[in-house]
Structure formats: C-alpha cells, structure tokens
Amino acid sequence: MTKFWLLILAIFSTSLIAQPVEPYLTPLPKGSDISILVQSVGKTPKTLAQYKSDQFKQPASTQKVITALAAELELGSNFRFVTQIKTNGTVANKQLTGDLIFQLSGDPTFTRDQLKNLIAAVRQKGIDKVAGNIILNTSIFTSHDKASGWSWNNLTACYNAPPSAAIIDGNCFGTVITPANVGQKATATVSLNAPIGLTSDIRTISNNSKDLNDKYCELDMSYLVANQYYLSGCIPANKDKTYLKFAVLDGVNYFAALLQNELQQQGITFAGKMVESNQSLSSTSLTLLATTQSAPLSEILTVMLKKSNNLYADAVFRTIGAHYYNISGTWRNASDAVKQILRRKAGIDLENVVIADGSGLSRLNLISADKMMEILQYIAANDATLNIIAKLPTSGVDGTLQYRRSFTQPPFKEAVHAKTGHIQGSYNLAGFIQTPNGQYIAFVQLLTGYQVENEGESPKSAIMRFESAFYKNFM
C-alpha cells in the first residue's frame, strides 16, 4: 500500500475514534463511578464518547424521561385527568335520595378551587341535602401509594408525597417554626388551614452551643396516624422563622376533611357517612352531576420534566398502568406497562431494566447509559410529534438547569436540554446538546458513589468542573 493511502487511512481512522473520557475524571472524588455515552443523532448514530456505558446504575430523576416517553405513546399529549361527581339516586325537593359519588382520578394538579367549583355545580343542581353517603371512589389506583425502594426517612418530605387517587394542592402542607429563648420550646403551626394534626416538642438552643446534645439534635418529623404528625428536635435561638413543607401521607383522609368543610361552607348536608370505595364504577347506572379536568398531558409533562416534579411523575406512571391494562393502576402493572409500550411502540427492549416508579425516587431503579441512549435516540427521531426535547430543562434558562453552574455560561447557555437526576451520591444527566449549527448530540451521564472528600469544598464543585470541561468537546 502506498504512503498516500496509508496517510488517508490514518486520517480516516482517527476521525472515527471517540473522545476519551478518562483524562477528564481527575476532578471527581475517589470512589466515584461514572458511565458516559455521547452519540450523534440520526439514522446511523456515531458514538462520540463512551465509558462503562453498559453498567447499571440508579437513574434518579432521569427516570422521568422514560415516564414522559411512555406517557406520550400511551396516553397522548391531549390526555387529561378527569374528576367527576356522580350519583346513583334522584333529586327532588332539593334532596338527593342516594349517594353522592366523587370519582377521583389521581389528578396531581387538582386544587381546592376546583373542589369548590365542583361543589358549587352540585349546589346549582338544586341539591341542599344528600340522603345517602358521600363516597370517595379511588378505584383508579390500588395497593400501596408508596413505591418500593423509597427512602423511609424522606417519606414525610413534600417532594416525596405519595400519588394517591385523592390528591389536592399537591398533597403537601406548610409548617411555620418560630424559635423561643434558649432552653424554651419553639412553636410550630400548620399553615393554610390544612386539616392536619401537629404536635411539637422543639427545643430552642444557642447557635454557638458546644454541647454535643445540641450539636446532634436535628429537626425531625414523625408520622403517627390519620395525618397526625409529631415534630421534634432543636432550632437555634437566633434563627428566623423556618418555613417547611411536608407530605400528606393519607390522601383520602385529607381530601375527605377538605370536602366535608367545603360541603358545610356551601350549605350541603348529608345524612349518611363519608366513605372510601375502591370498587370500579359502572357508568351506565350513574348520573353525572359535575366534572372538572386537568390541563393536557403536554403541559403536565413540561412541569414534570423542567421542575422535576415527583408527584406528577408518579401519578402519570400509575395512570399508565391503569390505562394500558384497563384495571386499577399499581406500581407493578405500571412498570410492566411502560416496558410493553416502549417495546411495542418504540422498539426499545427494557426487559432487564428495573423500573420501580416513575419519578426516580426509588433506590431500586436501575438502567444503563446504553438503554437510556436508546430512549433519547427515539425521542430525537420522533420529536416532531413527541415534542419532548422542548419540555426538558434548558441550561441557564429554566428548570433544574437554570442555575447548574457547569452550563450557565457560553458556550453551554441555552444549548443543553437535559433531565437532571440527583439522589445521595448520584449526579445524572440525560438529554441533548445543541451545536452551533443547530444539530443535536445526545448524551447520558450516570454518576454514583460521589462523595466530596474536603469539608470546605462545595459538594457540587467537582462534578461541575468535570461537566464544563468534558462537554465542551461536543460544542
């Protein structure tokens, strides 16, 4: 072979070599384990960088990309959660002889204002009194409202609110903690008139206390039963009021209390009881009295992805299971449904992937960068109809990438569209980099075992340095 052709072959071979990852790993703390896969987008994707891409890791909130794709393929962008009030009785002389039935849909966007309007619509039907029961029908979902693998010590956190069939105002409530003088009890009150029982035993301590009992005394919220909570621990004396949000762990009890109050406010009485029913309703034997619906799925997915809203993701996830199998949604049938939908409609085989929930909160979820890349490639190829890329956070602009320091400055600002994913020890990304010529490059980053060694160093500084240095290679 001539020297000329050897030179051409050498140049051509060099152009096919992927960008090495190892030289950029130096900033990461010891013990970190990262998977990287970067590819061009198109019918014949070219691998631009690859490192341990076949290893399974916890996706954290990048799981929401899977949920979004399955939801678009199964439910459609125009799908809406519908909440209805029905009856099995008749109305005469301002009395409903029969039951007033609330058919709940697990709508994660449902609000008190919508509840008020539904009751007002019933009132306009000429109903002042219900001779039967008030029934909360929760058959859209069944089994546990909390997914397997959720961290027990986060269950009372607002971002971990379980996706019950009965959701109202995000199933969260606010608490205000006001410190007292050192040694005295702080006060804790529930805001927004939430039907929550709260007792507290919070000790006010000196901000500069050297006592080990004070050093290791932390605020702790414990759940008792039926939305009764106990708040304990310590708070510094010179601290301003602390505003915290906690999860409603009994959605039906919470909804029932708000409903009973609203019925009373609007002058509707009932002779029976307020009860929950998980039995599927027969629509042919019931009369519709009032209805309300959510915004279309496209808007819900935008909030879910940009704000990384866990409640939205898990309500959508369980709804996928209910819709696909036409039975009450559970975590298990939702997981099976997502896999079936992506296999049959997108040609993506997730058989060995572990899908425990739709949000990524579960520590049981497992996926590889290779499999996540298949999902991104399908999204890119079909985004004219899916419109998912625009729903992802945009660097320096909105969502969870608005202030991510690695991407807030040129050339990254406005060029990265990706879902973030963070749980203890993990800093993940899955999405797209838009190059100056308008083309997309798909990338997946799954990082586990991340623990900063130096106490004085910002926890995120090492991963931010890695991202800003490594991804410049693809701009």
Characterise this structure.
This protein is of the alpha+beta class. It has helices at residues 3-15, 63-74, 112-124, 212-215, 251-265, 297-306, 310-325, 331-346, 369-381, 383-386, 461-470, and strands spanning 33-40, 47-51, 56-57, 82-87, 90-92, 95-97, 100-103, 129-130, 134-137, 172-178, 187-190, 197-205, 220-223, 228-236, 242-247, 269-270, 274-277, 287-293, 367-368, 416-423, 426-434, 440-448. Strands 2-1-22-21-20 form a five-stranded antiparallel beta sheet, covered by helices on one side. A five-stranded mixed beta sheet has the order 17-9-7-4-18, covered by helices on one side. Strands 5-6-8-16 form a four-stranded mixed beta sheet, with no helix packed on it. The model is unreliable at 3-15 (pLDDT under 50).
Largest sheet: 5 strands, antiparallel
Q: How far is it from the N-terminal to the C-terminal residue, by CA?
A: 37 Å
- Helical amount among residues, as a percent range? 25-40%
What is the spatial order of strands in the main beta sheet?
A: 2-1-22-21-20
Instruction: Provide the gyration radius in Å.
Output: 26 Å
Question: How would you concisely characterize the structure shown here?
Answer:
The chain has eleven helices and 22 strands. It is of the alpha+beta class. A five-stranded antiparallel sheet has the order 2-1-22-21-20, covered by helices on one side. Strands 17-9-7-4-18 form a five-stranded mixed sheet, with helices on one face. Strands 5-6-8-16 form a four-stranded mixed sheet, with no helix packed on it.
